[in-house]
Design goal:
Elements: E1 3-9, E2 17-23, E3 32-37, E4 42-46, E5 51-56, E6 63-68, E7 74-79, E8 83-88, E9 94-99, E10 105-110, E11 116-121, E12 127-131, E13 137-141, E14 161-166, E15 172-177, E16 182-186, E17 191-196, E18 203-208, E19 217-222, E20 226-231, E21 236-242, E22 248-253, E23 259-264, E24 269-273, E25 278-283, E26 290-299, E27 302-312, E28 317-322
Antiparallel strand pairs: 1-28, 2-3, 3-4, 4-5, 6-7, 7-8, 8-9, 10-11, 11-12, 12-13, 14-15, 15-16, 16-17, 18-19, 19-20, 20-21, 22-23, 23-24, 24-25, 26-27, 27-28
Amino acid sequence: MKLAPLNTVQNAHDDSIWAAAWVPPTDDSGPLLLTGSLDETVRLWNPNGPDKLQTNTGHCLGVVSVAAHPSGRIAASASIDSFIRVFDVATNNTIATLEAPPSEVWQLQFNPQGTTLAAAGGGSASVKLWDTAEWKLIATLEAPRPEGLKPSERSGSKKFALSVAWSPDGRQVASGAMDGTISVFDVPRAKFLHHLEGHCMPVRSLVYSSAPLDSRVLFSASDDGHVHVYDAERKTLITSLSGHSSWVLSVDVSPDGAAIATGSSDKSVRLWDLKMRAATQILTSHTDQVWAVAFGPTLQTDVRSCLLASVSDDKSISFYKYS
């Protein structure tokens, strides 16, 4: 497995790009890339070119997360302005505006079934769940404080939620916090299950394995420079991957489940072979910290391949072919 650099779009936004997500293909379109930036816009890209298709406005502060619905028809963006904007991908018409006060939302993710949108953020380390049929808030998942903390450490700021991920069956949600803890919730029962421990600094990105036999496996990226691989049900740390020289800001898993990609404030993108438990490739197309990496769907022309996109504070988007 390897990543072959394809092309880089310089000045893709007017400011740092902090978010990226692939829109699944539809009858009308192949897979498209959504990017969110501190320039307050969301932009839609056709990777074949690559060409900018549209610029979406509607936020009054920087965009920190974007997410696409499994149908490929709708998407959502979250901003530091505490609003989530749900929009039609093709027309950019606003479908819903969700308020998430009292503080900003840091990450969004639709469940695999497309029935629920999860948003992580807020001083209470909560994950809010919205029903996608009527865009009503249906649950707020809150994690208890880990035991053994001094009262002075039980402040909301330490428990601030930064990241969220759905299990492949949509029955569990994991959320990463500022203090390095990961909380796992049972969604049908809206119940906290347990913490996953091991990180000592903010957990900014989480993703469950895409491999059918590894659906309990959760990958986490942290400011402590490590990527952890957990069995999220058995509460065990399977392994820790190290190699980045600074914060690991993003992690995503390849469609075949054989590799993960990471982006870091050390300005690099790394590809990790999960059998070898080692980085097999270091890519240095960016000149500033890499805030997001995202694997696209498998290519119709080659089912063993897909695209990877990375975005950075350097305002650029890089595209790679994974095969």
